[in-house]
């Protein structure tokens, strides 16, 4: 089913959302796909947790900011 | 008319530096997600534009979101100039792909009761980033802004200066490309073989 991610994102129109909800009641395959889409979203979300700024990059950016003044 | 930084104010630069330095880790992280190896260059241009417009920053507690907005503007401008002929992918290529069904069909771990979870267990954070980094920027940007940075689709449309329908279409294609790329990455990096041999 194409609309599962949109269903998770809540970007479907109400009528389409209702249809997907009704379909999910009896379709085991789509329930599995929906759960898997949730896992994929979590993977994407968690891929951005680290906010490391490498020391050499920080040093270059600090130098850049220091040299901004005319 | 934008308020340019006043060069006659001697404390302007150190004050600007003091404001932006604490924001650099998050700003750089966002740039990495959006632009990969071009992140540092993106941050530098953001800082340059920020400095020139620093007279517009009236609420210093809002420095971080103000810088992020500038960064997204810079990124949007770069996307536009780099993709005058957008690197759109034909839907025929990806629309029918479902990673969930593909894993079930290929059955890489025949004795597993949790096949899909085991497949996703192959990927560390760096692997997911590598897969995202391999996508075309127009798809990576919408996926990152939506699912990593948590922007609503309407907000993404506004930030990237795109119609909402274009953002939704790119999200759909981006998700499909991401799914297919995960499988291709697992194959090319030998993750499936390693996992199968360890069982």
Produce a short descriptive summary:
The complex is a heterodimer of chains A (70) and B (199). Chain A has 70 residues and is mainly α.
Protein model, in words:
The complex is a heterodimer of chains A (70) and B (199). Chain A is an all-alpha fold. In chain A, 71% of the residues lie in helices and 0% in strands. Chain A is built from four helices and no strands. Chain A has helices spanning 4-9, 14-26, 28-46, 55-66. The longest helix of chain A is centred in the middle third of the chain and has 19 residues, at 28-46. The termini of chain A are far apart. Chain B is mostly helical and 199 residues long. Chain B contains twelve helices and no strands. In chain B, helix 2 runs parallel beside helix 4, helix 3 (39-52) crosses helix 4 (63-82) and helix 10 packs across helix 11 (164-188). The radius of gyration of chain B is 21 Å and the shape is elongated. The N and C termini of chain B lie far apart (65 Å). The model of chain B has no long low-confidence stretch (mean pLDDT 86). The A-B interface holds A 2, 5-6, 9, 11, 32-33, 36-37, 39-41, 43-53, 57-58, 60-62, 64-66, 68-70 and B 7, 12-14, 16-17, 20-21, 24-26, 28-29, 33, 40, 43-44, 47-48, 51, 95, 98-101, 116-117, 120, 123, 125, 128-129, 132, 143-144, 146-150, 153, 168, 171-172, 175, 178-179.
End-to-end separation of chain A: 58 Å
Report the uncertain regions of chain B: none
Terminus-to-terminus distance of chain B: 65 Å
- Gyration radius of chain B (Cα, Å) is 21 Å
Number of helices of chain A: 4
User: Please, how many helices of chain B?
Assistant: 12
**Helical percentage of chain A:** over 70%
| Number of DSSP-assigned strands of chain B | 0
Succession of helices and strands of chain B: HHHHHHHHHHHH
- State the share of residues found in helices of chain B, binned by percent: 55-70%
């Amino acid at each position: 089913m194409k609309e599962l991610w949109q269903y998770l994102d809540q970007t479907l129109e109400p009528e389409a959302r209702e249809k997907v909800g009704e379909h999910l009641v009896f379709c085991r395959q789509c329930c599995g796909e929906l759960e898997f889409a949730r896992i994929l979203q979590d993977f994407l979300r968690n891929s951005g947790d680290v906010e490391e700024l490498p020391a050499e990059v920080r040093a270059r950016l600090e130098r850049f900011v220091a040299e901004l003044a005319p | 008319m934008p308020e340019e930084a006043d060069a006659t104010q001697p404390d302007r630069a150190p004050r600007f530096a003091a404001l932006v330095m604490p924001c650099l880790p998050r700003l750089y992280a966002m740039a990495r997600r959006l632009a990969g190896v071009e992140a540092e260059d993106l941050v530098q241009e953001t800082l340059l534009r920020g400095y020139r417009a620093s007279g517009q920053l009236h609420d210093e507690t809002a420095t971080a979101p103000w810088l992020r907005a500038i960064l997204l503007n810079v990124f949007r401008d770069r996307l536009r100039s780099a993709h005058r002929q957008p690197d759109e992918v034909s839907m025929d290529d990806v629309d029918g792909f479902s990673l969930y069904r593909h894993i079930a069909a290929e059955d890489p771990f025949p004795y597993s009761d949790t096949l899909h979870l085991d497949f996703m267990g192959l990927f560390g954070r760096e692997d997911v980033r590598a897969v995202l980094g391999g996508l075309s920027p127009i798809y990576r940007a919408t996926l990152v802004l939506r699912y990593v940075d948590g922007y609503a689709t309407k907000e993404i449309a506004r930030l990237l200066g795109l119609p909402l329908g274009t953002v939704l279409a790119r999200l759909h294609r981006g998700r499909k490309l991401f799914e297919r790329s995960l499988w291709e990455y697992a194959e090319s990096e030998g993750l499936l073989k390693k996992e199968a041999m360890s069982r």
